[in-house]
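Page 42, continued from yesterday. The earlier attempt failed because a stray header line got pasted into the input along with the sequence. Redoing it now with the clean sequence only.
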Amino acid sequence: MNGKEILLSTAYLAPVEYYTKLYAYDTVWVEGCDHYGKQTYRNRCVIATADGPLALTLPTEKGAEDKTLTRDVRISDHGNWRHVHWNAFVAAYRHSPFFDYYADEFHRFFERRYTFLTEFNEALCHWVCEQIDLQPDLRPTTAFEAAPCDKDDFRERIHPKKDFHTADPDFAPCPYYQVFDAKNGFLPNLSIVDLLFNMGPESLLVLRDSVASTPAGPTGTSYSYNS
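This time it went through. Structure tokens are written below.
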């Protein structure tokens, strides 16, 4: 092990790109000490529907001030979002090869009321990793670093408004079967559940094959990792 470390934001059912980092890096720091920002993957995932990509946004409570730390952000019950999100997952993936296999366990996350966003995201992430036999070393940050010198900083590089082709050249999405690909074509970098429900245990192989090259360490040294 060469000690490759990466810094990521928390994410709600993060995109495939995010999980390639969990695959490729030895240590993954998940940021909770930054100021919470909207319109990010922190509370948003994108799935494939018959009509194309659909963004599902998890509502959060407004803090007492704008500069709320991410780890202190609470989930809101606004809009009956749990029911809405679950129905969207069912409509999108009920005909996928593996949805029925995972559905009961996955549904439990939308029956329980989690208080904090980071807690909910972490629980989902650990569950997904267990299903695909991915064993990342995930650690929460304890202090905010504006410019970390010993970690690759992807907190804002994996972002719904950024083109991964330019923001992350190490990510080369490997095409896999999708329910609506005959209609929509292959849609890259959707939520990890799109990969999970369509490919099941083979998801790990897709993650492996989506790493374009070996990530470079903070000093520019190239490291190898086990495939």
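Notes: Residues 117-131 form the longest helix (15 residues).
Reminder to self: strip header lines before submitting.
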